Amino acid sequence: MPESPEVQAFAEAVAQRFVGRTIESFAVRDFRAYKTRAQKPETLDGAEVVAVTRHGKYVDLETDRGHLVVSFGRHGWGSWHEADAEPTPDAPAVMATLALDDGTLLDLTDAGTFRSAGLWIVADPHEVAGVAALGPDPADPAFTRADVDAVTIGRRKQLKAVLQEQTSFAGIGNAYSDEILFRARLSPTVHAATLDEAERERLFEAMTAEIRGAIDVRRGIPIAEQKAAKVAAMRVHGRAGEPCPVCGGEIVDYTFSGTSAQWCPTCQSAG
User: Fold this and answer.
1) Which SMART domains does the entry mention (predicted)?
2) What is the pTM for the complete model shown?
3) pLDDT in tens, 12-71
4) Helices assigned H by DSSP within 219-269
């Protein structure tokens, strides 16, 4: 699942290429992904791209005729190519295609068997319920320790689940929650309410360092290589059975409450 660092890289790459260009057509190929039935996709035909920004895991492609908001879900992504390019073998299913006035096609795709990606055309991105409900974003310079305290103090919920809850913190998913907790030396199963002052400070520092650092590293990496770059950068997520990069102990996989975590018991819960 793309999380805020990859989505930020995608938004910046699209902005660099598409801002100022005209959308010749917006064709929805899979209407399971299209969520605004009252607004026809043709609304964007002839629109000029004004800006491309990110809200949590959502991409907001702003035009002079409205906003195209994209949620990649679990298996969604995007790519662009020339109109006469040969089709790529085994390419993921295309949800929708933006055709620009310079001959570029932007395909929005979903590789999952279940369509979890979504597309909206709205006058304001906050008309999308998921965007309106987003909590504070650790990538935002305005994000503070007070934001962490407001979410965690008194919360009788496991910490990994809190980190992935988009209404609590925007943009963090399964992978970066594991990496944040590893950096903060905190167990994924501990309840947020049990954190003391020093632990909340470590959590804040880990959230900002991990997310902002990943955004910096992802910039400039080709869109097609973002997933591989993310996987390669993980220290504990997806590394079950491998040695911990800090203590050398074994990274373990733990399934609980409908989710799973990869973590180092030695570093994160004193064994």
Assistant:
1) Fapy_DNA_glyco (SM00898), H2TH (SM01232)
2) 0.94
3) 999 999 999 999 999 999 999 999 988 999 999 999 999 999 999 999 999 999 999 999
4) 226-233, 265-269
What are the Cα distances from residue 195, in Å, to 49, 95, 202, 260?
45, 43, 10, 21
| Residues 6+ positions from 36 with CB-CB distance below 8 Å | 119, 120, 121, 122
Q: SS3 for 172?
A: coil
3-state DSSP call for residue 104?
strand
Which residues lie below 8 Å from residue 55, measured CB to CB, with a gap of 6+?
69, 125, 131, 134, 170
**Secondary structure of 196-208 in the HEC alphabet?**
CHHHHHHHHHHHH
Q: Are the beta carbons of 120 and 127 closer than 8 angstroms?
A: yes
**Rounded distance, CA 194 to CA 199, Å?**
9
CB 268 within 8 A of CB 185: yes
CB 236 within 8 A of CB 27: no
Distance in angstroms (rounded) separating the CA atoms of residues 19 and 22: 9
User: pLDDT tens digits for 114-147?
Assistant: 878 999 999 999 999 999 999 999 999 999 999 9
Domains and CATH numbers, the chain: 4-132 (3.20.190.10), 145-232 (1.10.8.50)
- DSSP type of residue 34: B
**pLDDT of 145-198, one tens digit each?**
999 999 999 999 999 999 999 999 999 999 999 999 999 999 999 999 999 999
